Amino acid sequence: MNLALKDIHHGLCRFVLTCFGLGLLMTVVLSMIGIYNGLVADALAVVRAPAVDVWVVESDTRGPFAEASNIPLTIRDAVARMPGVAETGAINFQNVEAAHAGASLRLYVIGYEPRHPGGPQRIAEGRAIGTSHFELVADRRTGLLPGDTIRLGRNHFTVAGWSKGR
Fold first, then answer.
1. Are residues 58 and 94 in the same domain?
2. Cα 134 vs. chain centroid, distance in angstroms?
3. Domain tally for the chain?
4. In contact, 123 and 163? CB cutoff 8 Å
5. What is the pTM of this model?
6. 11 FRET partner, CA 20 to 30 A, in 27, 37, 127, 138?
């Protein structure tokens, strides 16, 4: 122990720089782990939100999240008639940037058919979508409140309620 203390006393500057470098290294490693876990959590939240067992996509596409997939209604009806299939529904995903309350919101919009799989599992506040157009259910993290109106594209949508995540 005495030898280590003498070495620190003799090379104090080197010791401090080494401690600083190791601290910086640990900071970078922990930051990378946090960023990675956040990306994985966000990606899985989108996949798990509709609570479906099977995704049916157009052949030769990269799936529902990476590339558009157009499935004709006749195919969806055929899948609905297959043994073991309880329900089917269409879902559309879109990244959108919209202005609200003087700020720019980046939203991941999930379009779904009311009363079909793909929508939010639980409504925490407010109500579910009641009409086929111009209403939405928002996640709490968006900062949108039930009753707020937001413009998406050319249309204005009213926030009907908040979804409650898993």
1. yes
2. 22
3. 2
4. yes
5. 0.63
6. 27
